[in-house]
């Protein structure tokens, strides 16, 4: 059990994860949302990259833990697990589905995570200047 009496689970390849994304961490390419690798930077106070386990939390609940303008991307836990990035369930008092992806170092790992994402909730403040063609120098 964790400190807030939520049973910790082992994250497996069968789980799906949510990641909060800001408008500047995605683009529209060929009419579709595309998550940038910058969406997988670790916050200074965390040991890994924060995600939320689908099934313990909904996409809307995961979104509520951040800024109101964030969107939500979803991807399979198989992606980090198969690329030497363990996923550890670390529930906190207001977020029972909170987990962290560990060892997210290097651009190639961040790109793999970003490319696996499907945007399920668009950010509400999406600036027009972020619209690009399918050619990008970032990813």
Can you lay out the helices and strands and say which pair or pack?
Elements: E1 16-21, E2 26-29, E3 32-35, E4 49-53, H1 59-64, E5 71-76, H2 78-81, E6 87-89, E7 98-101, H3 107-115, E8 118-121
Antiparallel strand pairs: 1-4, 1-5, 2-3, 4-7, 5-8, 6-7
General description of the model:
By secondary structure, this protein is of the alpha+beta class. It has one domain. The chain contains 3 helices and 8 strands, in the order E-E-E-E-H-E-H-E-E-H-E. It has helices spanning 59-64, 78-81, 107-115; strands spanning 16-21, 26-29, 32-35, 49-53, 71-76, 87-89, 98-101, 118-121. The strands form 2 sheets. Strands 6-7-4-1-5-8 form a 6-stranded antiparallel β-sheet. It has a two-stranded antiparallel sheet with strand order 2-3. Strand 2 and strand 3 form a beta hairpin. The chain is globular, with a radius of gyration of 15 Å.
Please provide a brief summary of the model.
The chain is an alpha+beta fold and 139 residues long. It has helices at residues 59-64, 78-81, 107-115, and strands at 16-21, 26-29, 32-35, 49-53, 71-76, 87-89, 98-101, 118-121.
**Range of helix content:** 10-25%
| SSE order, one letter for each helix or strand | EEEEHEHEEHE
Helices and strands: which structural class? alpha+beta
Mean pLDDT: 87
């Amino acid at each position: 059990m964790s400190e807030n009496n939520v049973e910790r689970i082992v994250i497996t390849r069968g789980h799906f994860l949510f990641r909060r994304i800001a408008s500047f961490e995605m683009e529209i390419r060929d009419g579709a949302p595309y998550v940038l690798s910058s969406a997988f930077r670790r916050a200074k106070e965390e040991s890994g990259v924060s995600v939320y386990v689908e099934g313990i939390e909904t996409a809307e609940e995961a979104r509520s833990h951040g800024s109101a303008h964030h969107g939500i991307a979803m991807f399979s836990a198989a992606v980090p697990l198969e690329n030497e990035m363990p996923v550890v369930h670390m529930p906190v008092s207001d977020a029972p589905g909170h987990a962290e992806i560990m060892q997210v170092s290097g651009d190639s790992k961040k790109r793999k995570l970003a490319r696996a994402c499907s945007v399920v909730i668009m950010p509400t403040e999406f600036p027009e200047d972020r619209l690009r063609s399918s050619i990008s120098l970032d990813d």
